[in-house]
Amino acid sequence: MADSGIRHLFDELNLTEKTAFSLEKTKDDYILDITVQESGQITGVKFANTESDILFSSSEDKTIKCWDIRTDLKKPVSVFEGYEESNNIFTSFDVSCNDRVICAGCAQNKKSEDVHLMFWDRRGKELLGCYSDSHQDDITQVCFHPTEPDTLSTGSTDGLVCVFDIGQPTEDDAIVLTLNSESSVDKIGWHGNNLYCVTHIDTFYLWDTKKEEDLLVLTDIKEKDNLQGKDSIEYLIDGLVVNDKLHLVAGTHNGSLRVLDVSGDSPTVVQSLTGGHTSTVRCCLWSDNMLVSGGEDSMLCLWSHRKAIPKQEPKGKLKVKKSVTRKSQPY
């Protein structure tokens, strides 16, 4: 995403203006239209941390591919494959902050009941190794630390969140911490040495991984007295680190977003974002001092402080297909 020219966040994340982009608009409305050849459903997409033209993707074709978007994208730069004895169904992946190591988590192998975490050397393309003892069910999240290339966290439908030091020689040596969210893990992320977790039943955890202690546990956030009426929430989306401060993004099924301050004893709404989405929001991203959100209404919304862009009359009516709602996997 291009630099927006915004150098600071107005007091308490006061994002009041929006620009919404429909996924059904013509190619000319995009900065870049990327079409990569994948056989099977795409399960993850991520740009490299140190090279803006390098894109990674994972799919149900049992591979992770590396693409250079400066090319015609007819052929990947690299293809990473797993072990024959694993099912190689990659459900989540991430790349270390120095782009040297790729790690992917798998769905449980129904025959062996093993759950694999696989590691590749991005430069040499070879498979470095595999962990198989830390999780007992499908891995839903793989997340490297943003500044420590050997620190990795993973989450699973078994309710466990694990922290590894992948610089160690064996899995037993590598596992630093095992945390229990008591439910299926939806999202995890880092805030310094703290690790947050959002579950599929809308509970929220924040742990200090160095002191190995709970910092915040919210199991009834939707029932909080101060989160009713105009500030009500119906589900949690993800954590959001803004200016080194952790926020929690929640929503309502009519498309409204709530940005919550979770630094105190009780979460409070610091900003409501309305008018962009008309259905459940599934993901969000903070980049270049702007918030991007994606929903089941087939819309991407860009929320920023820029002055309102003058409305242009469309040349014709724009047809937007309704997306198929995929309910969260029950625990």
Automatic annotation (TrEMBL):
<keyword id="KW-0853">WD repeat</keyword>
<dbReference type="InterPro" id="IPR001680">
    <property type="entry name" value="WD40_rpt"/>
</dbReference>
<feature type="repeat" description="WD">
    <location>
        <begin position="35"/>
        <end position="71"/>
    </location>
</feature>
<protein>
    <recommendedName>
        <fullName>WD repeat-containing protein 89</fullName>
    </recommendedName>
</protein>
<dbReference type="Pfam" id="PF00400">
    <property type="entry name" value="WD40"/>
</dbReference>
<dbReference type="InterPro" id="IPR036322">
    <property type="entry name" value="WD40_repeat_dom_sf"/>
</dbReference>
<dbReference type="InterPro" id="IPR039328">
    <property type="entry name" value="WDR89"/>
</dbReference>
<dbReference type="InterPro" id="IPR015943">
    <property type="entry name" value="WD40/YVTN_repeat-like_dom_sf"/>
</dbReference>
<keyword id="KW-0677">Repeat</keyword>
<feature type="repeat" description="WD">
    <location>
        <begin position="274"/>
        <end position="304"/>
    </location>
</feature>
